[in-house]
């Protein structure tokens, strides 16, 4: 059924799947953070919204655009150009900045612009470096063997791990602050008990 939906309504199918997998990635990231005092449902909903409403339509268009790159009669050469465009244009200048910027805006914690700048300053290069360890080889296989309407679907197979990493990175500083606050509140409670 899902395969039929991908063929008949590829954008809707990709939005559902991408949103779901961004949510799953965030859920895994939260469970991997033992210092977190409770499960943050709004955070997961932001991940689902970003994946389904923002990333999936843009990713869908991007893969169709890449399919038009045909500078050669060789499928292998065309695949190389597509991987290069994906990894040297989309990842560093669209995908990674868009994720950290949009997710920070969705958090709606002010001041927003300095928070976006901090996220990009802190996370852009490490995320891009880790991106290049994972995605070029996968995308080479994806662009060479997978039909264009299934490419985002193929990306989503490995994205569950990538989405976990992105969510962990995005929220790492907040998690440390929460841990410090929890430690501080425990110390304060302990001090209050001693004075009682």
Describe the overall structure:
By secondary structure, this protein is mainly α. The chain has one domain. It contains six helices and no strands. Residues 176-191 have low confidence and may be disordered.
Features:
mainly alpha, globular, transmembrane helix, transmembrane, membrane, Protein SYM1, Mpv17_PMP22, 196 residues
Report the biggest beta sheet as strand number plus sense, adding barrel if it closes: none
Q: Oligomer, anyone?
A: single chain
Number of domains: 1
Compute the separation of the termini in Å: 65 Å
Number of strands: 0
Cα gyration radius (Å): 20 Å
Alpha-beta classification? mainly alpha
Query: Strand percentage, roughly?
Result: under 5%
Number of helices: 6
Return the string of H and E elements: HHHHHH
